[in-house]
Amino acid sequence: MRNIVHSVPADPTSVVCRALFELARKEDDLAAAEAARVHYWEPYPPTVHGHRVAADALRDYADALSRSA
Fold first, then answer.
1. What is the pLDDT of residue 69?
2. Neighbouring residues of 48: CB distance < 8 A, sequence distance ≥ 6
3. Domain coordinates of the chain in residue numbers?
4. Phi, psi for residue 68 in degrees, rounded to 5
5. Angle at 3 (CA atoms; ends 20, 9), nearest 5 degrees
6. Is the separation of the CB atoms in 66 and 38 below 8 Å?
7. pLDDT tens-digit series, residues 16-52
8. Origin, by domain of life (predicted)?
C-alpha cells in the first residue's frame, strides 16, 4: 500500500480562490456552449442565464475571499 502524504499549501486561501475562479470559468464555458446551440434570433435557454449568474457569484465570492485574506 502506498503512503500518500497530503500537505497543506502555504496559502490555502489562494488555492480556494483559484478553484473558485476555475469553477466560474467552467460555468461561463457551459453558458457559451448552450448559447451557441440556438440561432441568434431565438431566446437563450434559461440555463444560460443560470450558468452566467453562477459564474458571477463564484467570481464575487473569490474576490471577497481574496480581499479578506
1. 72
2. 31, 34, 35
3. 12-68
4. -80, -10
5. 30
6. no
7. 999 999 999 999 999 999 999 999 999 999 999 999 9
8. Bacteria
- Give the gyration radius of the chain's Cα atoms: 17
CB 9 within 8 A of CB 43: no
Amino acid at 36: A
Burial class of residue 16 (count of CB atoms within 10 Å of its CB; 0-12, 13-18, 19+) = middle
SS3 of 8-61: the string is CCCCHHHHHHHHHHHHHHHHHHHHHHHHHCCCCCCCCCHHHHHHHHHHHHHHHH
pLDDT reading at 3 higher than 70: no
Give the HSE-up count for residue 67: Cα atoms under 13 Å, Cβ half-sphere.
6
